[in-house]
Design brief:
By secondary structure, the protein is an alpha+beta fold. It is built from 24 helices and 18 strands. The protein has a domain at 13-53 and 95-294: Penicillin binding protein transpeptidase fold (Orthogonal Bundle). The radius of gyration is 35 Å and the shape is elongated.
Length: 727
């Protein structure tokens, strides 16, 4: 007969001695010095172990379940609507009182039927496992670990993982006598410090109940049955309890696993029946129910790609704010860990209605798959608060490689600054010009004062402390006519969007006065490290017509929010509040709202902006809102690369729209091109950006029933040359 070469579990003398010593040591630690291995009274050994006081001191091991990694949840501004979830381990810790009795019973029945009798180590279970694994020929390997021991193993492995210690993590799970002995001794001490319900609560929150890093019964209840842990029925609880033996093979959400998952579920149900947790009728009914008929599997996708309500770009903005804000940790790694494991409740400033309508308007204006390939980015801010209400881009948020080749997808939010996941900003054309009028009035001038203009300005005329200029000439003309109007007042220059008048303003008061006004209303460049408007990239005379601006749509929306809030400027914020697992509020970045510009100047500016909408020769006529609502807007066209419009409803919302090819504007210009089926040889802010802003604001105002304030924009006499026009 050929020799059997199959592997068998054989014991060397050393292994047998080691195992026996381990068990005897356990008994000594428990005060049972007698040879329990050979006593007929072994069935009563649990009462002996329960009575002892273990001497092992365990330091540095935290068994507080609230310190476990937990998923963080991001909410809209109502604090109730979930946008996205973040986790390294999908876990939501819940107290035992919020876990159904059936779930507690199912785990005890499956894992440790004498859990409420022993003192941390089930001696009978250890004996059974020893005999089955090492004495009986061909016996199956048995674990013999009590539920308390399993809890200890999970805690040690989790803490090692959190500490970035792979060696300790391996040692916490390796199949060795030393590891088993350590678990036993710690379990004995643990039972002296914590009650049985506390240990059971800990286990139910730390154990793995499926693939995709799913931990704890609350997450399992939501994943498999679309319910909560307190509502789990016996059949649902049995399904979950069965998973821990082999999460990869028993996860019922995987179709290939379902036959075995059902078999394991039925084993648990049988154990529950045998142990008196469910009666025969319940048992027979449940095992006769197909597993698939009980499931209601929910998507476990997480992060911003899985964000609801088309809020992927906003979600990404919030994540960058957390990663960049010292309020959430000393280092970027600390902040990322807090987000992924801190169990945070993050209430954002997202207005679902605003974000949804902006995304819809962006795709209505330029469909994502439009042959033009043009992009549109929209941002909105609530005046006087700094709250970012949302974004609109004609792209799907996607961080996979698909975004590199698919025109309809993007991982970058071009509506925000570079540091917040956006681009390097954009020149914005004439939508800059209201800043010039603020600087002009701050210098003590009237907006009706006539200015002599020309098409050539020596750059030294704009010199100031932050800009020297030179002998070179700046050639500037008005759009379409390529000429100038002279003389012309700043009021007319803004309404008609004339460049030469803006140049005359800068030549009269200096470029620094304009730059200072820009900073006051919230302007900064989008390029990381060159945010200051005094940076060399922006501090040139053409800044007066937005040509050297390098700004994000969000920053400009915030600038227009300053115009809409009587001169109150705020830092844009995306987060209203953050609380941790204990309900403690964490500090969040502040909007720092303050009166930045005199309200008389802002009211006069608003009047001038409205003139650009209502006058027949105005450049912003396409921005007129519906229902007789007084409208305030400024369009912009940066040559034929970017088209812009900023608009606002006083004290309610400020919106900014930018259109262009953000990838390659110089080689793909907005001219002689069809966009969304409409061809123009010449496009400007008034032909596409202004209608987009108008239509969005009309829809939003109607949806929110925003009040009409037609008193806003009342000019002040001293800035009107002493003459206030009749309303």
């Amino acid at each position: 007969m050929p020799k059997n070469t199959s592997k068998k579990k054989t014991l060397s003398g050393r292994r047998i001695v080691a195992l026996l010593l381990a068990f005897i040591t356990l008994c000594v630690a428990g005060g049972a010095v007698t040879s329990l291995l050979f006593l007929p009274a072994v069935l009563g050994a649990n009462s002996v172990v329960k009575a002892v006081s273990p001497s092992l001191e365990v330091e540095g091991i935290d068994f507080d379940v609230t310190s476990l990694p937990q998923k963080s949840t991001m909410y809209a501004n109502d604090g109730k609507t979930v946008i996205a979830e973040f986790y390294a381990q999908n876990r939501e810790v819940v107290p035992l009182k919020q876990i159904s009795t059936a779930m507690q019973q199912a785990v005890v029945a499956r894992e440790d039927k004498r859990f409420f009798e022993h003192a941390g180590v089930d001696v009978q279970g250890v004996m059974r496992a020893f005999v089955q694994t090492y004495v009986r020929s061909g016996g199956d390997q048995q674990g013999g670990s009590s539920l308390t021991q399993q809890y200890v193993k999970n805690v040690l492995a989790t803490q090692a993982r959190e500490s970035g210690d792979p060696i300790a993590e391996y040692q916490a799970t390796e199949d060795t006598v030393a590891r088993k002995l350590r678990e036993m001794l710690i379990a004995e001490q643990l039972e002296k410090k914590y009650t049985k319900p506390e240990i059971l609560q800990g286990y139910l929150n730390i154990a793995q109940f499926g693939n995709n890093s799913l931990y704890g019964v609350q997450a399992a209840a939501e994943r498999y049955f679309n319910t909560t842990a307190d509502k789990l029925t016996p059949i649902q609880a049995a399904t979950i309890a069965a998973i821990t033996k082999n999460p990869a093979k028993y996860d019922p959400s995987i179709p290939a696993n379902q036959p075995e998952s059902q078999r394991q579920r039925d084993i648990v149900l049988k154990l529950m029946n045998q142990q008196g947790y469910i009666d025969k009728a319940e048992y027979e009914k449940d095992i006769a129910t197909p597993l698939v008929d009980t499931l209601d599997v929910q998507d476990v996708s997480h992060g911003c790609m899985a964000a609801s309500y088309d809020a992927g770009f906003f979600c990404d903005f919030v994540v960058h704010k957390i990663e960049n804000s010292s309020e959430f940790g000393k280092t970027a790694a600390d902040r990322e860990k807090l987000l992924q494991e801190g169990g945070l409740k993050i209430v954002t400033t997202l207005d679902i209605d605003a974000n949804t309508e902006m995304m819809a308007q962006a795709n209505k204006t330029i469909p994502a798959n439009d042959p033009s390939g043009m992009e549109i980015a929209i941002a909105s801010v609530k005046p006087g608060t700094g709250e970012v209400l949302g974004f609109g881009l004609n792209r799907q948020y996607d961080t996979t490689e698909a975004a590199n080749t698919d025109q309809t997808k993007s991982a970058m939010n071009y509506a925000v600054d570079q540091v917040d996941g956006g681009g390097r900003g954009f020149p914005i054309g004439s939508s800059w010009k209201p800043i010039n009028l603020i600087a002009w009035m701050q210098a003590g001038h009237s907006i009706t004062e006539p200015l002599v203009t020309t098409t050539y300005y020596q750059t030294s005329l704009f010199s100031c402390k932050g800009y020297t200029g030179g002998t070179d000439m700046w050639h500037v003309t008005n759009a379409l006519t390529n000429g100038t109007v002279s003389p012309e007042s700043p009021l007319d220059g803004l309404a008609r969007s004339h460049n030469t008048t803006m140049a005359a303003i800068g030549a009269k008061i200096g470029l620094c006065a304009v730059a200072d006004a820009a900073k006051q209303v919230g302007y900064h460049n989008a390029i990381e490290g060159q945010e200051d408007v005094y940076s060399s990239i922006s501090m040139h005379p053409s800044l007066l017509i937005g040509g050297t601006a390098s700004v994000s749509p969000l920053t400009m929306a915030n600038v227009f929010a300053t115009y809409a809030a009587n001169g109150i400027e705020c830092t844009p914020i995306a987060i209203k509040s953050v609380t941790d697992t204990d309900g403690k509020s964490l500090q969040v970045p502040s909007a720092n709202c303050h009166q930045a510009v005199d309200k008389d100047i802002i009211q006069t500016l608003a009047y001038a902006m409205n003139q650009g909408v209502v006058r027949p020769d105005g450049a912003a006529t396409m921005a007129q809102l519906a229902n007789g609502r007084k409208s305030f807007a400024k369009t912009g066209t940066n040559e034929d690369t970017y088209l812009t419009t900023g608009s606002f409803i006083p004290n309610q919302i400020a919106t900014y729209v930018l259109v262009g090819d953000v990838q390659d504007p110089m080689n793909h210009r907005v001219a002689n091109i069809a966009i969304n089926g409409q061809y123009h040889s010449y496009w400007d802010g008034g032909t596409i950006a202004a209608p987009a802003a108008r239509d969005f604001l009309n829809t939003y105002a109607e949806k929110k029933n925003l009040p009409i304030d037609n008193n806003y924009g009342t000019p002040v006499a001293k800035y009107m040359g002493g003459n206030v026009p009749k309303s």
